[in-house]
Specification:
It is built from two helices and four strands, in the order ααββββ. The protein has about 140 residues and is mostly helical. Among the domains are: about 45-95; about 95-135, no CATH class. The longest helix has 18 residues, at about 55-70. The radius of gyration is 28 Å and the shape is elongated. The structure holds zinc ion. Zinc ion (ZN) binds near residues 112, 116 and 133.
């Protein structure tokens, strides 16, 4: 005859009363998700602001993009673009994005003079170093 007063049975009854424990199919409570997770896709956020002219708007937009990339690392800095508010189809990229020798992307502004620069302090520089960025 079994002794129901043992700690084992008290624990089994408590687990059953709470509705937790092993499932009927024998699977544990923690397991990998049933469906594979989707890979992340790119989305675009449109921010509106005012500026006296296109050159000023470009500087403000670069500052917004760089600031947000510091706060949110998932932000794709190279995908940042600027367009007039009523002409999104005229979007111009804000950053160079030239591909370096190790596959890194230049984080300097588009059409910058001199070397391309990899992200981070002391990042790799490459290119001719004279004339506008050669993309
Ligand atoms: Zn560059």
């Amino acid at each position: 005859m079994r002794d129901n007063r043992s700690p084992y049975w008290r624990q089994r009854r408590a687990v059953g009363a709470l509705g937790i424990g092993r499932r009927r199919d024998g699977a544990g409570l923690i397991r990998p998700p049933g469906r594979p997770t989707r890979p992340h896709r790119f989305f675009t956020v449109h921010l509106g602001f005012t500026a006296p002219g296109a050159a000023d708007a470009r500087e403000v937009a670069v500052a917004y993009a760089e600031s947000l990339s510091l706060l949110r690392p998932e932000l794709a800095l190279g995908a940042a673009a600027l367009s007039p508010a009523d002409a999104w189809h005229r979007a111009e990229r804000l950053f160079c994005g030239a591909v370096g020798p190790d596959g890194e992307r230049c984080v300097d502004v588009a059409d910058h003079p001199g070397f391309h620069h990899a992200p981070g302090p002391g990042g790799l520089g490459w290119g001719d170093g004279d004339g506008p960025g050669d993309g």
